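Retro notes, structure queue

What went well: the backlog is down to a handful. What didn't: a couple of records were mislabeled last round, so from now on we paste the full input next to the output in the thread. Example, using maleylacetoacetate isomerase from Caenorhabditis nigoni:
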Amino acid sequence: MFGNGGLLKMLRPILYSSWHSSCSSRVRIALALKKIDYDYHAINLRDTESEKDFAANNPAKKVPILKINDLTLTESMAIIEYLDEVFPEPPLLPKDPAQKAHARAIAFHITSNIQPLQNLAIGKMLDEKIPGYGLEWCQFHIKKGFDALEKLLGLYSGTFCVGNQITIADIVLPSIVYNAMEKYSVDMTPYPKIAEINKKLAEIPEFQTAEPARQPDAPKDQKNWGENLGFK
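Corresponding output:
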């Protein structure tokens, strides 16, 4: 039996993941919260061609991929909502319709409005065209997104992003803050509410297990992102 409620009999799930992938981090948190044990299949995003079955599982050649219940699931948000429906405890979406809408709105603001524009591949491509512009681009779009996010949290947050329950909004927050601080050196001083909630989440064991540094494929030295990820 797997899952906190023992609802399904299934083979041990397999998560195709990369230590520094924001999308993978979200699913790692969700799996930890749902108490689902899984096998970690590390993917080198610099060399996806070496993974013989990777493209077969996801033609987009992106992580995460979750193999579970004879299904192959892609896209982090779709995976998280699947897990929430099949393993309902603890719930990742509030029962109250308004709070559910707020949680989804914050989650999609991060995953759709911020994350794609600060993507490392975009930054590197721009940097090749105009040296130094890639970092400027990523910082600009993170700050723009965080300006709105700080106001949203001011409207809806309690202990966590929406009220006092961990929701899908909290699951997507740590990775974008990690990127802002560790990849792009964004000053978090203007964003006290974001920083406060992120700090609370960092104290929760299930969030700690999903941290990039704790993944089996994480490099020993993560201080120099230029060496580890190739961003200048």
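Agreed that this is the format going forward. Reviewer comment attached to the example: Residues 15 and 218 are 15 Å apart (CA to CA).
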